[in-house]
Amino acid sequence: MQDISAYLSANANNMKKSVIRELLKLTNQPDIISFAGGLPAPETFPVEELREATDRAFRKYGDKMLQYGTTEGDNDLKAQIIAYESEQGVQLGMQNLLITSASQQALDMLPKLFLDPGDMVIAGRPTYVGAIQAIQSYQGKILGIPFSSANDGFDMVELEKRYQRARADRKRIKYIYVIPDFQNPSGICWSEEKRRALLEFAYRENLFIVEDAPYREIRFIGEPVPSIYQLDQHMENRGIVINLKTFSKILAPGTRIGWIIAREDIIQRLVIAKQAMDLCTNMLSQKLLAEFMATGRTRAVIERTCGIYREKRNFMLEKLEQYMPKRFDLTWTKPEGGLFLWISLPHFIDTDKMFYKAIEKKVAYVVGSAFYFDNPEHNAMRINFSYSSFEQIEEGVKRLASCIQEEIDAHDAGPRGQTLPEGV
Ligand SMILES: Cc1ncc(COP(=O)(O)O)c(C=O)c1O
Q1: Closest alpha carbon to 143 in 183, 171, 104
Q2: Could you report the per-residue pLDDT of 257-293, keeping only the tens digit for each?
Q3: Which of 246, 249, 285 for a ligand 1 pocket mutation test, highest count of atoms within 8 Å of Cβ?
Q4: What is the DSSP code string of 67-91?
């Protein structure tokens, strides 16, 4: 048999398997409580309403539902999205909108459009693993920026330092990738001040910003902060922000529909990039979503979802407080939205190694190291609070806490506890 590896392109050789997807395979046993996946809670899906919308759409559009559509996206859906965005204070026209096969396609289109091998993207340390994978598959690199200790966005001093160093090394930096609302994996939400500071930086350095916002509407505590896209409109209105949205977390990920909001010339370029990928986005999904949105029920569904997640998030925080070992170096984020929180552990705990012990105790998380392009941190984990039931959350946190306690005990009983031979 011919060995495929000798035939692969450099791009294909750069494609890395998602660590998360590999680990998720281990968590598929029925008795494991998994905080590892990023799945929305199935009880939030408006199943019946989407079924009715599909019936109506078939009656209304008939064969058009089954035909190819334009690459830009279906006009009925675009009109609904324009109205929906306008309710949230984002003004845009048809020419600023491109419908995609959810956000992951957009994340693949952007490096395809912007990156030559070796080009760099500025992104958080940690950041969304699907974005890292896409950038790597076009032989791009990531200039990682840590978050501030206040968890309100990038550490701007580090951004300047690392950026200037990369420039001095003659690196070509093309865009900044951020998830300002309830980041995956950390749950961090950027303050308005930090969003403005990032825009100022991008204006000064002539960089584009890709604002990935799948969790923007999944805010269940506090007041919304303007998006970076909106802030640009109010500041210098240079059109440097490319805003990515999706139905995955606000309605249902199985619809596989998202949208990109950007300046017209950028949209036109993205349309060309998309043509070779899939000609057009799934028409059935687009039409059923257009029909669903026309009922005016989208916001109500989101509010219901936020209510469910608020309770689950509060419950998980309460249980973490109750069961986790009490130490200054064991902390977790307290997100005001999204699906995840991030646990930082004592430096001597390697969550990659602990993962297998956790599986033995029938609980799973995602290893923190999966969210780094290079030099991963090993003493953190991402846990999801949207999917598990309340009972599973309590039992899972208990199991996780006992796993961590065992690591701490083993460390405390380590070299310090042992008597070493004299002279060593
Ligand atoms: C930050 C971020 N961006 C993009 C995606 C991709 O979402 P989708 O392709 O379902 O829209 C996800 C999925 O979890 C995500 O967390």
Answers
A1: 171
A2: 999 999 999 999 999 999 999 999 999 999 999 999 9
A3: 246
A4: S---TT--HHHHHHHHHHHHHTT--
pLDDT at position 416 is: 58
Residue 189, pLDDT above cutoff 80 = yes
The dihedral built from the CA positions of residue 60, 302, 105 and 115, taken in this order, carries a sign that is positive
DSSP, res 226:
P
Residue with the two structure tokens 């500041």? 235
What pLDDT does residue 7 have? 85
The encoded tokens of residue 161 equal 């330092």
Query: In b/e form, how buried is each residue of 41-64, taking b as 16+ CB within 10 angstroms?
Result: beebbbeebbeebbebbbeebeee
Q: Which domains does the chain have, with CATH numbers?
A: 4-45+300-408 (3.90.1150.10), 47-296 (3.40.640.10)
Start-to-end Cα distance in the chain: 56
Q: Is the distance from CB of 397 to CB of 319 less than 8 angstroms?
A: yes
Ligand 1: residues whose CB is within 6 Å? Answer: 38, 102-104, 107, 128, 130, 179, 184, 212, 214, 246, 248, 253, 258
pLDDT tens string 211-239: 999 999 999 999 999 999 999 999 999 99
DSSP-assigned beta bridge partners for residue 261: 97, 243
Q: Could you give the CA distance from residue 52 to residue 44 in angstroms, rounded to a whole number?
A: 16
| φ, ψ dihedrals at 415, nearest 5° | -45, -35
Q: Give 3-state DSSP helix, strand, coil % of the chain, rounded to 5.
A: 50, 15, 40
CB-neighbour burial class of residue 259 (10 A; exposed 0-12, middle 13-18, buried 19+): buried
Spacing, Cα 113 to ligand 1 middle (Å) = 19
pLDDT band of 422, cuts 50, 70, 90: very low
> Mean pLDDT score of the chain, rounded to an integer?
94
User: CA-CA distance, 69 to 264, in Å (whole number)?
Assistant: 20
The string of DSSP letters for 4-60 reads GGGG--HHHHH----HHHHHHHHTTSTT-EE----PPPGGGS-HHHHHHHHHHHHHH
Please check the confidence at residue 417 and state whether its pLDDT lies above 50.
no
Mutate to test the pocket of ligand 1, among 24, 45, 100, 103 (most ligand atoms within 8 A of CB): 103
pLDDT at 326 over 50: yes
